[in-house]
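Forum > Structural Biology > Help requests

Title: Can anyone predict the 3D structure of Diguanylate cyclase/phosphodiesterase?

Hi all, first post here. I have the sequence for Diguanylate cyclase/phosphodiesterase but no way to get a structure on my laptop. I'd be grateful if someone could post the structure tokens.
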Amino acid sequence: MSLTRRLQWVLALLLLIATGVNLFLQTQSTRRFLSAQLESHAQDTATSLALSLTSALQANDEVMAERIIAAVFDRGYYRRIEWHNVNGETVKRWESRPNPAAVPDWFADALPIEAPSAEALLNAGWQQKGTIQVESHIGYAQAALWRTFVDLLIGSSLALLALITLVMLLVKRSLAPLHRMANAAHSFVHKKTAMSLPENVVSELQPLALALGHMSQQVQAQFNAQAEQIAQVQSQLQLDETTRLPNRLAFLDALAEREAKAQHYAVLAFRLTNLAPLNAERGYQRTNELLRELGQWLTGSGQLRWFRLSGSEWAGIADSGQKPELITEWGAFQHHAALINFDGHETSSEVLSAVDQALNEAQQRKLEFFEVPRRQALTAEHWRQKLLSAIQELRFRFTPAQITDRSGQKLAIEWLARLPARDGELISAGQLFGQAHRLGLTESLDAALIETLMQLPNDETLWHINLTGRALSSLLVQKQLLALRKRQAIAVEISEAEAVALPDLLEHIQPLRAADIGFGIDSVSLGSGFLTRLPQWRPDYLKLGLALYEAGPQSALMAAVVRMASAMDIGIYLPVAADAQLPAWHALELSGFVWPPEQ
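Reply #1:
Sure, ran it for you. Structure tokens for Diguanylate cyclase/phosphodiesterase below:
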């Protein structure tokens, strides 16, 4: 319960108690007043009767005396009137059974009124003739007390409602600056807006506002400095030192962007075959000048974006609609070039493998230029039928990738989806989702994959399930994940490119986190917009992509990433294989390693 609500309830309860006490005290005061009035009225009536009976008693006219008393009794305000002689004997008694007043029994029992009685002497001149005793009727007093109580109750209730409404508004208005400070802090933490503190803060909250403002400035300055440092290191690491062209890491980022958009593109790559002889003949300095001249010529020669992948290998990317132009100014360099077309569904490793195979074939066939024939791609209708068949029959195959900590202890399992083809080929999850996205079947594919996972036997490990961004916004997929979580510990993850492309990612992962489902980001390459949104997402873990893996364990970029993740308590997993640098990776403060599935 919020502080505002608590204060409102407490103050409303205090007002209710005060109103109840005031109602009780006023009712008691009215009861005492009516009791005193009855007693005074009885005494006045007894005295008045004694004086009225004097003439009748002097004449020894008892009939007249009885008529005088009966006339007073018949007025109905008295329960009993008794006439006693000087010996205390009852001469005449008038008594009535009181009609019940229109008063609830619980009220009469809670606030009883005693029937008062009064007595007066009867005289005939100087001779005493007896006494007259009068007892009042309490029914009228009880009815008056009940009416007074009802009027007070209605008036007090209306006043209480008005006061409670006023108090709630005042409390809400008084604590509004505190809520604005909380919202400002929340927005600052999630990097939605800059932290701005409210004005006109009550004096008790001013120290808190100043402390929050000072803290937010320091945190924002530290985060901006760290993000700027990482961006600088990243930009330096993504440039070739000799030619100042983007290097292999930048090339992998560019491939990841096109894979996320399922965008058609072509890669024009070449390999310099006489680089070593030129170094020996002209020296490294002169050869580097020639490489810089080649890089400058490539940059200004056309629309392609050029990258230097390694010492002798270069590649340019031509997006859909751009026509790669052949290179004419080679200078002293000898080369083999190849042109490869891609449909945007290939992973970065598949593209690099295709480029390497094309250059090798061009070199083996001694061709200066070799254009790889386009693969016969399935039509959209064939892909639709293939995916619909797999979705309806759940023909997916899952192979587990083991996730271990630095000591080798198994932590979790990452399930990799495959679709068996008729020729025995396994179609990767990336190709599946790429085609499903193109055909509008992504949601159905995600649901079918999770349905297949639910048929696997559960175990005591944590399952990492890689989904698309669209799947997280699907109510069907979320229900499936919640059902799977009831019998198995799971974490969902999406790629960095899709996470950056989702503006409302937090809204989709909050229900899953509320159900104790983990969240991670896969294929992390520190692309544009990722660092600024990372504090907002606060994932449980990051899985580094190929670009960061190739930066190496000793790189400044990797050290900065580890420090940043450690500061935000985010785990880091590194996909590795048999690697000579594995001991160096173990030396880093990584959470663990992802090992490929056994073939």
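The chain is about 50% helix and 20% strand. The mean pLDDT is 79.
Shout if anything looks off.
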